[in-house]
């Protein structure tokens, strides 16, 4: 039976590198950063869906960085933090899933453009978009796993 008097609700310091779900922070940085870099290095056409993808990747990257440092410094010991952890990662999953679908749709559109005018630039942008779609779905999966394991941890606390 877990002790309810323990003030150590969430891991702090170096323990975040060994605890599930916090071990997902670093892969979320890597894959979220790759989505950001890959989309930014392509021709951002059409603006609207790819602008959303850029917003989501930058937003989640910045907030995950902030979240990581809050956990690392130990400022997460209030009883509200487990529910905030679940809420943030659930929102990140919804955002990344919508951005991944938008990015996949734009990539399919670029495939039709590539079929009509197969230039070297179009092929390069298409390949970068394919890589961004894969990284975006991997980031979505990582945030989903983090949200599920955070919810399990929240239920135990």
From TrEMBL:
What membrane topology is annotated for this entry? Multi-pass membrane protein
Ranges where the MARVEL domain occurs: 16-155
Indicate yes or no for the key word Secreted. no
The alphabetical list of record keywords is: Lipoprotein, Membrane, Transmembrane, Transmembrane helix
Quote the PANTHER family the UniProt record gives: MARVEL-CONTAINING POTENTIAL LIPID RAFT-ASSOCIATED PROTEIN, MYELIN AND LYMPHOCYTE PROTEIN
| Family assignment from sequence similarity | Belongs to the MAL family.
Name of the protein described by the UniProt record: Myelin and lymphocyte protein
């Amino acid at each position: 039976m877990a002790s309810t008097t323990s003030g150590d609700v969430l891991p702090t310091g170096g323990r975040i590198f060994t605890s599930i779900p916090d071990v997902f922070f670093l892969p979320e940085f890597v894959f979220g950063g790759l989505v950001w870099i890959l989309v930014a290095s392509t021709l951002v056409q059409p603006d609207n869906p790819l602008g959303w993808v850029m917003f989501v990747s930058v937003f989640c990257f910045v907030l995950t960085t902030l979240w990581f440092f809050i956990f690392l410094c130990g400022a997460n010991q209030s009883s509200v933090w487990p529910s905030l952890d679940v809420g943030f990662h659930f929102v990140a999953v919804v955002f990344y899933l919508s951005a991944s679908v938008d990015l996949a749709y734009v990539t399919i559109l670029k495939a039709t453009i590539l079929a009509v005018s197969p230039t070297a630039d179009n092929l390069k942008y298409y390949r970068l978009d394919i890589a961004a779609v894969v990284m975006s779905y991997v980031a979505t999966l990582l945030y989903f796993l983090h949200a599920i394991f955070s919810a399990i941890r929240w239920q135990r606390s």
